[in-house]
Amino acid sequence: MTLLEIKDLTAHYGDFQALFGINMAVQEGETVAIIGANGAGKSTFLRAVTGLHSTRGQHIVFDETPIAGKGGDAIHKAGLAMVPEGRRLFRSLSVEENLLIGAAGKRKGPWSLEEVYRLFPDLVAKKHNPGTALSGGQQQMVAIGRALMSNPKLLLCDEISLGLAPRIIKDIYDAVPQIRERGTSILVVEQDVSQAMAVADKVFCFMEGRVTLSGAPSELSREQIAKAYFGMGEAA
Ligand code: ATP
């Protein structure tokens, strides 16, 4: 079943057009990755889907309900949860308090404190520590756990690997199959192309506000991706 369907999505900042007719569908149970260089429109796309950027009158259907033009709260209640770029934890609150904030207004579903700790065992010993006492990777785990605590149908992740060491990125991405096993679909925005290709069932490449390439990673060549990502023939 199609969980998220977007047709011909546009977005503007004043006179500046940031998105030009984006089409995308995420099926239930899928992991989808959006890749693209700085300024390609990835964050604007996420902001539009989560109601942070106006989409009134456009076609965004989530779980068979039109959500374009609705506020962030209503979209969250419908089952979309965002892991924002930069993690944005409440740094003076403990890990557990941060996770519980994510549970406010939660939907029914598989995610609970216990399940988040099972997903990220590193957090168990830190549960009473403040956000300030965590490594970057642990903060990212809390940010993902906090979003999962609302029991979303679709988890949106904005550049979750940014600024983290490769080993930590692996730990974070190792959680993706477990998240999916519990029935949560995932849409990640990722600048690390190899990581996106490794984790996703389907990849969309954005360039200058347009989808320049999409498909299953196994169907896409390095040359196609380089062209769609950078607008040139050879990988940089
Ligand atoms: P990054 O990886 O750097 O976050 P991105 O792919 O997420 O890039 P966006 O942040 O969506 O790209 O930006 C898309 C375009 O919209 C860029 O040209 C950017 O300069 C512009 N833009 C983004 N936010 C604003 C804003 N608040 N006001 C005006 N223009 C903006």
Proportion of residues in helical segments? 25-40%
Described by the principal axes of the CA atoms, the overall outline is: globular
Q: What is the makeup of the main sheet? A: 6 strands, mixed
What's the rounded overall pLDDT mean? 92
Regarding quaternary structure, what we see is single chain
Low-confidence stretches: none
CATH superfamily of the domain at 2-88 and 154-229: P-loop containing nucleotide triphosphate hydrolases
SSE arrangement, N to C: EEEHEEHEHHHEHEHEEH
Strand content: 25-35%
Count all strands and give the number. 10
What is the terminal-to-terminal distance?
A: 37 Å
Radius of gyration based on Cα positions? 17 Å
CATH class of the domain at 2-88 and 154-229: Alpha Beta
The molecules bound to the chains, other than polymers, are: adenosine-5'-triphosphate
Going across the biggest sheet, name each strand in turn. 6-7-8-3-9-10
Number of helices: 8
Briefly note the structural class of the backbone: alpha/beta
Could you tell me the CATH topology label of the domain at 2-88 and 154-229: Rossmann fold
Name given to the CATH architecture of the domain at 2-88 and 154-229: 3-Layer(aba) Sandwich
